[in-house]
Amino acid sequence: MGAEPKLTAEERAMLAGEAGPGVQRAMEIVVALGRIYGAADLVPVASVQVSGVSYKNLGEAGLQFLQEWASEGARTRVPATLNPAGMDLVAWRELGFDEEFARRQVAVIEAYVALGVEPAATCAPYLTGGVPERGQHLAWAESSAVSYANSILGARTNREGGPSALAAAITGRTARYGLHLDDGRRATAVVDARCPLRSEADLGALGFLVGREVGNGVPLLRGVRHEGLALRSLGAAMAASGAVALYHVEGVTPEAKDGVDLAPGHRELAVDDLAPAYDALNGPAEQIDLVSLGCPHASLAEIEAVAGYLDGRRLAAALWITTSRATRQVAEQAGLVARIETAGGRVVADTCMVVAPVAGLGFRSMATNSAKMAFYAPSHSGLSVRFGPAEQCLEAALEGRWPEPPSRPEGRWS
Ligand code: F3S
Description:
Strand content: 15-25%
Strand order of the largest sheet: 13-12-11-14-15
Bound molecules: FE3-S4 cluster
Largest sheet: 5 strands, parallel
Shape: globular
């Protein structure tokens, strides 16, 4: 355990309880983390993204913890948003969610609102709100959002837990260690990607393999030509099979363009074949009950691509495209939601199939284009999973069974 982080006068006052017991509790958490990780001091954060929102994961103890913190007068002092909840907060009844679950989930959201957190429940806050700038310090919790903020935007955040992110929102500070420091952002592994990367699923498969190898390290990838939002599936998968919170792509991501320092003793790896990832992430299901797209939460362009694919066609299986409330509203105004619903699909806001209580909705098998979703859904949601590009998943939704790989190899989503 390290020494006590150096505190400013304002931070010492918060720790002494001068801003009330709720703020004191938050500062105690931030300082304790600083002590554990040897932080020299605290750093102000520009925004916070809080995890621990689904009642399925939080339970009654978690809800009471939030309500108690709010009753102590704690309030956020920087912009803070939520991770996905356990259901669509508007359409939960028609989607088949349980009444009692919905009541408890609404209570969780109300507790967060009382604490001052915006009830925008999404794992992709960078698509709808203030986009963090390069070098800005954040306290974000959702692993794919952390990966995106660090790697694609060049902002700086550790992978926070639910309480530590909330404590950062209440104090406006986080402990300065790990990825807030230049040293923590050096590459611990150089990965030569020699395999073709034709779709978002291929990028996810690569991420699955790399994350499994590098754990919580910082990989520098060579041979990846995709950029921006197309890299989300790669980062989300590395954060799931490993705990990668920052990666660099040579010639693409902002810090890599400036030249990434290599950590002493860094490893050299190569990926020639994605088949081991597809084998590991594909179960035996032939019949498909549900197709889930939108992990991480779908962008407007992704929803538009689905609408275009489905025009004039009729689905045999359920199709849920998960996204943020704000993106859904824009998609609705653009007529995309109606086009998808005409085919029999749904654009579902505020949730996803990992944090929703899927077992109670009657689905047993699912197809997804997200390696992260394919990794978590069997254990978190009890689903038998098929994993492949979006086109293959949409064909599965149209046929109600897992089809052969699509004839067009180039995915529109990459
Ligand atoms: Fe987001 Fe759920 Fe995937 S939180 S990244 S849609 S598992």
